[in-house]
Amino acid sequence: MPKTRKKSDFPQKICATCGRPFAWRKKWAKVWDEVRYCSKRCRGNRDSTTAPASPLTERASASRTAG
Ligand SMILES: [Zn+2]
Predict the structure, then answer these.
(1) Separation of CA 45 and ligand 1 centre (Å)
(2) pTM score
(3) Cα(43) to centroid of ligand 1, in Å?
(4) What's the confidence (pLDDT) of residue 4?
(5) How far is the CA of 51 from the centre of ligand 1 (A)?
(6) In angstroms, what is the span from residue 44 Cα to ligand 1's centroid?
(7) How far, in Å, from the CA of 58 to the mean position of ligand 1?
(8) Does 29 or 9 have the greater pLDDT score?
(9) What are the tens digits of pLDDT across the range 17-63?
(10) How far is 27 from 42, CA to CA, in rounded Å?
């Protein structure tokens, strides 16, 4: 039985900002479907793409207005 699977069988994605592949993280377990950036930095650097804000991220930015 050909079992050519690597130890790290985690899924991967391509960062929408830097274009680099990044691997699955445990902290993304619940939101992996929406993860598009390899890091917070890339997430904030997105200016060319005009994607609508996800409801999940809305909560995080809500605290900023409270100041
Ligand atoms: Zn990136």
Answers:
(1) 9
(2) 0.53
(3) 7
(4) 72
(5) 16
(6) 10
(7) 21
(8) 29
(9) 999 999 999 999 999 999 999 999 999 986 555 555 555 555 555 55
(10) 17
- Cβ atoms within 10 Å of 38's Cβ, excluding its own: 20
Give 6-63 as a DSSP string. Answer: -S----EEE-TTT--EEE--GGGTTTTTT---SSHHHHHH--S--PPPPHHHHHHHHH
More confident residue, 31 or 1: 31
- The domain ranges of the chain are 11-44
Residue for token pair 């993280």: 25
How far does residue 56's CA lie from ligand 1's centre (Å)?
20
Q: If you measure from the C-alpha of residue 35 to the centroid of ligand 1, how many angstroms do you get, rounded to a whole number?
A: 11
